[in-house]
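Box 4.2: Ligand-aware structure prediction
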Amino acid sequence: MNKITPTADGSNTLFNETIGEHYHSKHGAVQESKHVFIEAGLKHVTLRQSSINILEVGFGTGLNFLFTLDHCINQQLQLNYTGIEAFPLSLEELRSTGYQQYVPDLVWKGLEDNYALALNEPISITADQQFYIAHTTLANFTSPPLFDLIYFDAFSVQHQPEMWSDEIIAHVGTFLKPGGVFITYAITGKLKRALKAVGFTIEKLPGAPGKREMLRATKAL
Ligand SMILES: C[S@@+](CC[C@H](N)C(=O)[O-])C[C@H]1O[C@@H](n2cnc3c(N)ncnc32)[C@H](O)[C@@H]1O
């Protein structure tokens, strides 16, 4: 079991002993998820479309998925969500986070009741929202360019540098449609150069509490 740890906004995260890092920012797990992925990612892309295909790198506890599903149900947006996860947590670990308190029952149950199934095949939660968890590594994941938005939520470059190599960033970029958006909580010169090299334009945005800046990148049309 990964150890449960409170973060500064009162929400919990898990500590991964093998990697030596938390699953979320210690400055606030819920705050980070909403600031980076929902506000700067999901809301930005759905300004111009009512149906969205999202790929998350590192599904982990499902926190980003919960807030995404909640928003899409509220705003009547069609959602196809794919999470890549090499080391799926147990259902018991998901429950231990206490994240059920931040979303309506329908949303929490959507994850809790379907988690094991979604690790095998795409599951419909409602007529308009479905999700799937690809139980594989990012390097082994393949897909045509069918995603509108990528949530890049890997462990940090200090703890898992191979997730941020130029090759893996180029590989991830191929899964986006032209005009698709890549969003992540971090920003480095190396990451910016890797994305620019494969045709992305870069925006530097204010980071979640505890981080000065974060990155949003848009694939060329
Ligand atoms: C920062 S955590 C993700 C947090 C998650 N988004 C959440 O809300 O709980 C990074 C995740 O990447 C997963 N991971 C590590 N190596 C991976 C790899 N090679 N391919 C895919 N996922 C990987 C970890 O198991 C972990 O769940």
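In the box above, the bound molecule is S-adenosylmethionine. Residues 3-219 form a domain with the Rossmann fold fold (CATH 3.40.50.150).
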